[in-house]
Amino acid sequence: MDRRVTSSDVAQAAGVSRATVSYVLNGNTGQSISAATRDRVLAAARALGYTPSTAARTLRRGRSDLVLMLLPPEPLGRALAMIIDAASEQLERHGLRLIAHRLPAQGGAVSLVHSLTPAGLILTTPLEEAELAALRSSGLPVASLQETLSDPLDPDLGIGALQVQYLAAAGHQRIGVAVPPEAGYAWRVQIRLAAITDACARLRLPPPVIEPLRLDAGEAAAVVGRFLDGPAPVTAACAFDDDHAFALLAGLAAHGRQAPRDLAVIGAEDVPLASLALPPLTTVRVDSATLGERFARMVLAQTVDGDGTGNSPAPEAGPAESGTLPPVTLIRRASA
Questions:
Q1: Measured between alpha carbons, how far is 335 from 249 in angstroms, rounded to an integer?
Q2: Where do the segments described as Disordered lie (predicted)?
C-alpha cells in the first residue's frame, strides 16, 4: 500500500467502527469493548503497519507527546548530557519523548512552548519570573529547581563548597578559581563563584582569587603564572570543571611546575579522562543521572495518571523526590 495507512483502514480490516479503533489504540479503558475486539483491532493495526498520526494526536489532545528540556546557553558538557540521557530514559518508560533545546540568552521560552505544545517542561536553566509564571499559569507541568530550593547556593549542587572544604582541610589558605569567561556560562559561573566565596568566608579564608580561563595553552600558562607569582601566591585552585582543571595542569607544565607540589588542582564532574591526567585529577563527581531522573519524575507526577497518556500509573516516589539535591562525591586522586 503506497499511501499512509489510516485508522479507517484498520477499522475496515477489523470490522469495527473508527471510534472503536480510536478507543483501542489510545488505550481508553472507559469503553465497554471486549477483549476479543481489542485483540482484533490491534492485530489489524500490526498487519497493516499502522502508526498513529502525531499531528492528529497533538491536535486532539491539545499537546504533543514531547517533554521539552530547556538547556543553558553553554556548550553541552558530560554532566548535562547525563542529565538528558537519564531524563529521556525515564520519560520513555511512560510513553513520552524528550527534546532538548539550548535556550538563547535573550530567552523566548514561552513562544517556544506555544509552538511545540509539549506535554511538560524541564528547566535546567533559570527563567525570568514573568516567563516562569506565564508557563505555570497555562497549566503546563513544569519541573524546575528554581522555586523548590530554599538556599540560593543550592543550584551549584554543593560542588564549590566541597572543593573549598577539601582544599582547606589539606591546609591551603589562599585559593584560586579558574572559570570560563564565555557569556554562555555566565549563570553557572555566577552560582559557582557565590558558592566558593561563601565557603571561603565560612572557613575564615581570604576571598578567592578569580581568574577567567579559556581552554587555551597560552592563557592557561598565564593564569598559572599569576596564581603562583602574585603578591599573595595561590597554593590551590578550584577549576570550574575537569576541562579547566586539565588546562591548569597544562599551564603548570608550561612553567616546569607540577600539581600538587606547586599548585593543588581540583576539578568538577569526574569525566572519564580525569583518571588519566598527569597527575590523575582530584575532582568532584556529580550524580547527574539521579538529577535527570528527578526532573523527569517531577514532570510525570503532574501529568495525567503520572505518564501524560493515561496508560500507566504514576512512577513510585523515590529519593529523587525527597526535596534534597543528589549528593556530590569527592574523588581523591593525586592532583590535590
A1: 9
A2: 304-329
Alpha-carbon gap, residue 140 to 18, rounded angstroms? 30
* Residues near 247 by beta carbon (within 8 Å), at least 6 away in sequence: 178, 213, 215, 216, 217, 219, 220, 223, 239
Under 8 Å between Cβ of 224 and 249: no
Cα(173)–Cα(167) distance, integer angstroms: 8
* Residue 290 vs residues 85, 130, 286, 296, 319: alpha-carbon distances, Å: 11, 29, 9, 10, 9
- Phi, psi torsion values for 22, nearest 5 degrees: -60, -45
Q: Which residue has the higher pLDDT, 336 or 126?
A: 336
Question: Where is average pLDDT lowest: 8-12, 184-188, 205-209?
Answer: 8-12
Cell 557565590 belongs to residue: 194
C-alpha cell at 70: 530547556
pLDDT at 33: 81
**Residue 45 and residue 23 in contact, taking contact as beta carbons nearer than 8 Å:** no
Task: Report the distance separating Cα 136 and Cα 129, nearest Å.
Answer: 10
pLDDT score at 55: 47
DSSP 8-state assignment for residue 282: B
**Across the strands, what pairs with 286?**
328
Sorted by sequence, the CB contacts under 8 Å of residue 237 that are 6+ apart come out as: 175, 176, 177, 178, 227, 248, 263, 264, 265, 266
Cell of 298: 517531577
Q: How many residues does the chain have?
A: 336
Q: Is 178 helix (H, G, I), strand (E, B) or coil?
A: strand
pTM of the model as a whole: 0.76
All residues at 6 or more sequence positions from 324 whose CB lies less than 8 Å from its CB, including other chains: none
Kindly report which listed range (6-10, 111-115, 139-143, 292-296) carries the lowest average pLDDT score: 6-10
Residue 121's SS3 state is: strand
Residue type, 68: L
